[in-house]
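Sharing a chain and its predicted structure for anyone who wants a worked example. Both blocks are below, sequence first, tokens second.
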Amino acid sequence: MIVRQFISWVRTAPAGERAEATRSLARAWLISDLSDDDRAAAEGALLMLLDDPSPLVREAMAQVFAASPDAPPVIVRALSLDQPSVAVPVLAHSPLLIDADLVDLVATGCADIQCAIARRGDLPASVSAAIAEVGAAAAALELIENSGAVLAPFSWDRIAERHGHLAAIREAMLALDDLPAATRLTLVAKLSETLSHFVVARQWLSADRAGRTTTEARERSAINVATHARDDLEGLVGHLRATGQLTAGLILRALLSGNLDLFDQALVELSGLPYDRVARLLHDRGGVGVSALLARAGLPVSTFPAFQAALEATHEIGFVGTVGGAARLRRRMVERVLTRCETDETVAEPLLILLRRFATESAREEARVFCDELVADDVEIAPEDRRIAA
């Protein structure tokens, strides 16, 4: 009887009052001990209110039913298809929506709808993949910041490919400790491209100079990322090869930086030989095995002298007496290889140019580190010590 009176009254009541009455009826559905007849009548009234011309009424219903597992499933599904102000609470919280529903809504919904879904707790990989594939940048950012979302490696890659040019996306992703190494490198490449286009547009650098600078920056980034990706090195090297970045220049840079893990894995990837076999060939002091390995890896013959000189130097002196970790060119090693190649008449000029650039880079980097250490030491000296020293 009460529900019938409600239906008669709600047809002519103001929108605000209808919304409050709808909120009360929805709560009664969830928490009141209604008889079967009253529950059926209440559900009918709520279904009727889905067609109410005022969104205030449907918003009130959505707010009550949003997080409840006991809400009427048919009403929840209808609310999820409503306009964003109505659908967002349901999409963000309702446990009654299945993964297929959410994937479809990501594909057809606006950015607000996608963002609401991206905020859901315990978001499964299939829904995350849909957001990564077609979601707006705002939804991708919500997904990145959602610690309860499950993302497959290809979803991270897709977000980087689609939105990596946006600073907010890059910063949020690079701040993650468990971000796949290949994705991290893709983001760095996106940043390099953005900066390159900017300086060329400003006419600060020519297109050729900017392109070379970008390539060098990518190579340095690859070495740096590889240094911190011991558990993901095989995947990173596969990514470098697939994207055309696993060049002789990068591999030589890895060796001259002391990143032997990256150097070895690169030759394993390119040669197709098992790791143990590659390691034995690299320790061949006669050089025959090294040349055969480099040839099998498809590296240019013109680069062989530099690789052989670097490996010989590694066997003799290692990387003792150098500054920094395995993410930066080692000046002592680079200069040793350059001196060896400059005295070899068979060495091609392009290789010497590359080694000279490496030598300049390593000298400048070592000087910068040295000066930073001097400043740091000076800061640590107490004022009293300065007066005594004076």
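Comments welcome. The radius of gyration is 32 Å.
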